[in-house]
Amino acid sequence: MIRKIAKASLSFVMILFFVFLNLVGLGDYLYPDTVSLFTGETPESVLCFSCESEENGAIPAQGQVLAFGVIPVKEVSLNYYEKTELLCGGDLFGLRMETRGLLVTGIDSIKTGDKSVSPGKDAGLKKGDVILKADGMELKSAATFSKIIAKSEGKSIRLTVERGEEALELTLTPALSADAAGYRAGLWVRDGAAGIGTVTFIDPKTGAFGGLGHPVCDSETGIPFPFGSGSVCHAQVESITKGGEGSPGELKGSLEQSNVGVLTSNSPQGVYGILDEKTPKGGKSIPIGLKNQVKPGKASILCTLDGSGKKEYEIEIEEIIGKDRDSKNFVLRITDPALLKMTGGIVQGMSGSPIIQNGKLIGAVTHVLVGDPTRGYGIFIENMLSNMPE
C-alpha cells in the first residue's frame, strides 16, 4: 500500500515538474527544434508526439512533444530522410581550389615619396572582401589583377566587390611606390588553395562524395574560400607532427599530379565533389544513422595515417551539444592507444574521418580542441548530406 502511494506521489510530482518546465519555457532547452525521421517511420517511434496528417494525406511537417503522452512541452519540425547506404571514406585526398574572384587577406601601406598611403583602405576594402571584377573584367588570378594595377598609371579602377551578402561598387586609386618602380594597391589577395583532408563518404551509385565536415578556409584570416572551381587527387602521408596541449598536430602529405575528380562546393558542412568514372568506388556500404540515433558512448573512426591504408580506431562520444546546429554537434574523445601513440589525438588532415556507431555512419570528425588534442568535435552525417549540392 505504501509503495503504491509513493509511486503515485512520484508520478504526480513528475507531472507537476513537466508542467513547470512547460510554463517557464525550459522545454526549448530539453528538446531539439527539429526531429529527424526516415521516410515511413512514425514520429511516435522517436519521441512521444502528437501530430496530425496534412489535409491531402501527406506526412506531417510539425509535431508536438508530449510528456507522459499527455502534457504538451514543445512544438518541433519533422525532417524526413530516405534510408540510405553509403561507402565509408577514411581515405586521404588532396584538393586544389580556385577562388571565385580574389579574396582580400590583408591591407598594407605604400611609401610614396615622403609619406605612406593605403589605396586599399582608402577605397573602403576590408579583410574578407571578395574582389570579383576590375573595370568590368572578371578576376580569376592575382597575377591578372597585378597587371591591371601596374598599367593603371594612377588612374582610378572600378571594383565590383562582394562582402558577405552585400554587393559593392568601390573605387581603387593605385599609388606610385617609392620602393618599387610601378603602381601598387597595398592589397594582399589570394586566388587559390591546396591541401589534404579525409573523405567522409561516397555515394556508390553516382560517385558523389563529401569530406572534411567544415569549409576550406584561408590560413591567415580563417575566412572560408569563396568557391570558384576545384579538383581532387590522391594524396600520401609523408610525416606526422604529433599534437600536444596548445599545439595542434598535422598530417603532412604530398599531392599526386593527376586528378581523380572535381570539387563542386565549399560549404560550412564540408567540401563536396564527384569522382571520375574510372576511380574505384568499391567496398562495403553501410546505412546512415540520423542525429536522434547518435548517443554518448563507444564509437569508431576511419582514417589514413600511413601507406598501409585506412584503419579503424576507437573513440568515445562524450556529449551531444547541438542537435539544432549546422556543425559541431557533439564532443568526441580519442581512446585508441595506437592512434594516441601515433598522433597524440586529432590532428589536421583527419578532418572528415567518418564516425561509425552501432554499425551506422553517423558523422565525421571536424575540429580538435587546442587545449586537449585527444578531444574534438563531430558533425552529424545528415547535416553533411542536407547541404550536398544537387
List keywords for this structure.
single chain; 390 residues; mainly beta; six-stranded antiparallel beta barrel; six-stranded antiparallel barrel; 27 strands; 48% strand; globular
Describe this entry's structure for a reader.
- The chain is built from six helices and 27 strands.
- The radius of gyration is 26 Å and the shape is globular.
- The longest helix has 23 residues, at 2-24.
- The strands form five sheets. The protein has a six-stranded antiparallel β-barrel.
- Helix content is 14%, strand content 48%.
- By secondary structure, it is mainly beta.
Strand content: over 45%
Q: Quick one: overall form? A: globular
Distance between the termini: 63 Å
Average pLDDT across residues? 83
Helix amount:
10-25%
The count of β-strands is 27
The major β-sheet equals:
6 strands, antiparallel, barrel
* Count of runs of 4 or more consecutive helical residues: 6
Based on CA atoms alone, the radius of gyration comes out at: 26 Å
Stretches where pLDDT is under 50 for at least 5 consecutive residues are 21-27, 48-54
Tell me the strand order in the biggest sheet: 6-15-16-19-18-17
Q: Structural class of the helix and strand makeup? A: mainly beta
Offer a quick outline of the entry:
With about 400 residues, the chain is mainly beta.
